């Protein structure tokens, strides 16, 4: 094996350790995937996870070609994306909390408190359906400037000097994606084991309330961060 190939493999393995630690740290992406698995099942959660990993790939390519370096060199660019992401997360969380408080007519005409699941409801962030689940995961990841800053700060350190930057960036982001999908698959499978208990409407409401509150907290923290 040539020295070049050894350097590439060494860079991939080293980045895999760092990205793996980043993957298992609880965050807004994990909260979204877990909620999707509990509320709508494994397929919906898988598409949410695929949306998240698509965002990771976009950030990886952007960092490799230097586009996302704007986040570290331009205060205006970073602030604009930070406020957009914060607003999205707060809106997302508030929408989820509002859905848990909205009554749903029962079969006998009486109103009961439940979470609507119509296609137009904003409970998934931008509506129902598998593609909408994917878009929700994608938007949540892309509107988090800290992901971009992580890639700008970390990716160049793992790209060998003689390697094509774009190709190396895609490979490194691909490693992160594989780890992310493996981790999300474990989480989704875990929720499947407790499906009977998690499918209760009362549990659904509390999951939405907790997740909504967490997302609002992430949004506020992002807005107030330097």
From TrEMBL:
GO terms assigned for molecular function: amino acid transmembrane transporter activity
GO CC annotations on file: plasma membrane
Major localization listed first in the record, in broad terms: membrane
Record flagged with keyword Transmembrane: yes
Keywords: Cell membrane, Membrane, Transmembrane, Transmembrane helix
Cellular localisation: Cell membrane
Membrane-spanning residues: 12-34, 46-70, 76-94, 166-194
Name of the protein described by the UniProt record: Threonine/homoserine/homoserine lactone efflux protein
Native species: Thermostaphylospora chromogena
């Amino acid at each position: 094996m040539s020295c070049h190939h050894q350097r590439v493999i060494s860079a991939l393995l080293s980045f895999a350790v760092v990205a793996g630690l980043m993957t298992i740290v609880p965050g807004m992406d994990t909260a979204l995937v877990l909620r999707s698995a509990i509320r709508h099942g494994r397929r919906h959660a898988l598409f949410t996870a695929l949306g998240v990993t698509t965002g990771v790939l976009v950030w990886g390519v952007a960092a490799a070609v230097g586009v996302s370096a704007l986040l570290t060199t331009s205060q205006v660019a970073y602030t604009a994306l930070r406020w957009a992401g914060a607003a999205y997360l707060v809106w997302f969380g508030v929408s989820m909390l509002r859905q848990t408080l909205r009554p749903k007519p029962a079969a006998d005409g009486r109103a009961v408190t439940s979470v609507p699941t119509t296609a137009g409801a904003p409970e998934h962030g931008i509506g129902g359906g598998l593609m909408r689940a994917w878009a929700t995961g994608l938007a949540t990841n892309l509107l988090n400037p800290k992901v971009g800053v992580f890639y700008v700060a970390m990716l160049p350190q793992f790209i060998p000097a003689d390697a094509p930057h774009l190709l190396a960036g895609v490979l490194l982001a691909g490693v992160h994606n594989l780890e992310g999908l493996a981790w999300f698959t474990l989480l989704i499978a875990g929720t499947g084991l407790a499906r009977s208990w998690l499918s209760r409407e009362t549990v659904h409401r509390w999951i939405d309330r907790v997740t909504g509150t967490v997302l609002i907290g992430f949004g506020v923290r992002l807005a107030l961060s330097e």
